[in-house]
Specification:
Pfam family, one: Annexin
Keywords: Annexin, Calcium, Calcium/phospholipid-binding, Repeat
Largest sheet: none
Helix content: 55-70%
Distance between the termini: 27 Å
Family: Belongs to the annexin family.
Number of helices: 20
Strand content: under 5%
Low-confidence stretches: 6-61
Number of domains: 4
Function: Calcium/phospholipid-binding protein which promotes membrane fusion and is involved in exocytosis.
GO molecular function: calcium channel activity; calcium ion binding; calcium-dependent phospholipid binding; calcium-dependent protein binding; integrin binding; phosphatidylserine binding
Shape: elongated
Number of strands: 0
Amino acid sequence: MPSYPGAPAGPGFGVPPAGPAFGGYPQPPVQSYGGGGPAQIPDYSGGQAPSPMPGLPAATVQYTQGTIQAAPNFDANRDAEILRKAMKGFGTDEQAIINVVANRSNDQRQKIKAAFKTMYGKDLIKDLKSELSGNVEELILALFMPSTYYDAWSLRHAMKGVGTQERVLIEILCTRTNQEIRDIVNCYKSEFGRDIEQDIRADTSGHFERLLVSMCQGNRDENQNVDYQKAQEDAQRLYQAGEGKLGTDESCFNMVLASRSFPQLKATVEAYSRIANRDLLSSIDREFSGNVERGLKAILQCALNRPAFFAERLYYSMKGAGTDDSTLIRIIVTRSEIDLVQIKQVFSQMYQKTLASMISSDTSGDYRRLLLAIVGQ
């Protein structure tokens, strides 16, 4: 992983909204999601999941919480000293490093990074990189990246070099709030000197390209009030653009799914089921294919139950032979302070096993210990 900017002298990204933030980016708002009722949550994996997604009470999905909270009685200098001792001399005390990084918020980690440089005249990240390797190194470096920078870095990494990691683009651009997307776009420009929209146009094509460009605008309606008449009209419009005609009017799907609020989309999904006698996800399955299908479905899954979308991504990062460690790390890190508690709950309901047990059987050593510490085991 490349080096990335050190924390500024003041507080880092993640300070309360009134304070300054990393690179001048404001703290994203607390995300609130609409809860899904039992009748409206379809099976998310196109029939691959071991069991259909159970309905969740609205409160479970609406009020989210992370497994990592800001540590009380936080002392950045003391933590910097602990990390210095853990890396000094012969060998590395990985457990001491894990105890600190898994129990501090992202904002607190930025302060530790700044304190370390002040106290020792050394770059904490360079020191960590020299002591660690492999997946545990990638995980710890991800934890020390300011949140907005990590999303921007992940997007850059997904489009850099030969080939494109389309699932990473979908996972980030189709699930973040407007403010988060705008911050990511600004950070991408300031840190990498590149325009994310131009990179997307160069790396993708067709209807998938258009969907991602729409997502980059960060202009989704975020009004939480639902207009049921509009939901009915949108559902009718989507039916006429797909199941109700020969061929598909892709731009109609793009317009509705890229611009309506998540609660509004949830109401549209419910209205669509009544009109078409089929759920909208399965219609998208029939009308689209490839990355644009995955992108449209990701948006709908977020409207219905965002933690379930991430639970499914985590499950498939570990299912079968081998592990998609980058996806596992990225989701655990990015959701650790937002909704990882809900993701764990939904994971158990969807797959009849806990997230921790799957991580335990798929990883090992310090990497496993740190992941389990973050998920709260």
